[in-house]
Amino acid sequence: RLLMGETLVWPVNALGFSIGRLDAFWLGWLRSFFNQLFPFLGTGLLATYFRRWSGMNWGYVSALAVPQFILATCVAFGILALTTILKIGQLQEVGVVILLFSIASCIVLWLLGVGVIDIFSCLPGRVAEKLAVLQGGLLIVSTNYRLMAVLVGCYFLSFVLRGIRLMLLFWGANNYNIDLSDLVFILALSEFGFLVQLTPGGIGIREGVMVSAAWMLDLDLELVFLAALADRIYTVISLVVMFVPSYFSLAHSHGVGRKS
Predict the structure, then answer these.
(1) Contact in structure between 223 and 173 (CB atoms under 8 Å)
(2) Is the Cβ–Cβ distance between 2 and 25 less than 8 Å?
(3) Range with the poorest average pLDDT among 100-109, 139-148, 214-223
(4) CB 1, CB 28: distance < 8 Å
(5) CA–CA distance from 207 to each of 29, 30, 90, 172, 229 (Å)?
(6) What is the pLDDT of residues 135-172, one digit of tens each?
(7) How much is the mean pLDDT over the chain?
(8) Closest CA to 7 of 70, 59, 55, 52
(9) 184-210 CB burial, b ≥16 within 10 A, e <16
(10) Which residues pair with 257 in a beta bridge?
């Protein structure tokens, strides 16, 4: 959660606004809590929070989200591609498909991230004028290479910490020692339940993907399902417990402001 807070603090600062790390920490909890109720509800409320407390233009709010989504997805696809290469002998044809899809997705997303700013110059005058703030925000964020490095580092470390949590859940299930490459493959594939939330909090999708990955690797399906279920229960309980302190802490905070 501290790392996810940093993924708010750094881009907000880059756009000329300021937010306290404690506020960013609590916002992360609330965003995840409301995302469990309805897909992307927490993300929408987060955008509204920035708009209300700072007067941040919707273009800047969008500029906070687009590069981060592209980076987070590329990190997940990159890890998945590397792990698939290690497991290609076991995964065979399925592994080749996953590998090619991961590489192609990274390339497409990266080109989209690089080229989306140039698209604005091709739009009609009035449309381009209305999107000028978004274009400016994307330029500020995407050309700040230090910011990009920090965000990639935060996403990678968050992935590692989630992997440790999942490994402990496997270890707690009859001291089951799962192979590290198997663990990383399952975790990388299941990340898309977080990134593409077709259901509240990716519920059902993430667990289904984890079991499918276990089937590809010929692992104990029941054990993997129980670990995925335990991980979901832990997530929901922690979000419910942290909802009240998050809400009241933000209610008495100074919110987001412009840098002086």
Answers:
(1) yes
(2) yes
(3) 139-148
(4) yes
(5) 21, 22, 22, 18, 7
(6) 677 777 777 888 888 988 998 999 999 999 988 888 87
(7) 83
(8) 70
(9) bbbbbbbbbbbeebeebbbbebbbebb
(10) 18
